[in-house]
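Before the break, one more example. Copy the sequence into your notebook; we will annotate it together after we see the structure.
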Amino acid sequence: MPAPARIAAVTALTAGLLTAASPASAAPAQPEGKIVVFVTEGAEVSLAGTELREYPPSSACQAFPAGAHVVANQSTGRLLFFADPFCLTPAPPPFNFIPPGHGAHVSPTGGFRVG
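Here is what the structure looks like once it is written out:
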């Protein structure tokens, strides 16, 4: 292959790789799965046990329900915790987030979002 043809081929390949790796060309993946919150038995009395609350993973702030006790992150995104239900005050480390597949005790006065 003559030198100008090789240069053109390498230039085209490099341009294609840069375009494929460009953040502008790849839309961020929406987290999948669910966030599950267990509410203490005293907050909801039922003969069938306590119903679990399920939330879609979202970057929007979600307040924990009254009596929230434990949360399980069954989503593909990191779950961020906040000290208030409006997600204005991040929880202090090491309690500020949990990765997918993990759970934690929570305060019913806080909030959460995926991010």
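Helices lie at 3-21. Strands lie at 33-39, 53-55, 62-63, 68-75, 79-82, 97-98, 103-105, 111-114. Try to locate both features in your own notes.
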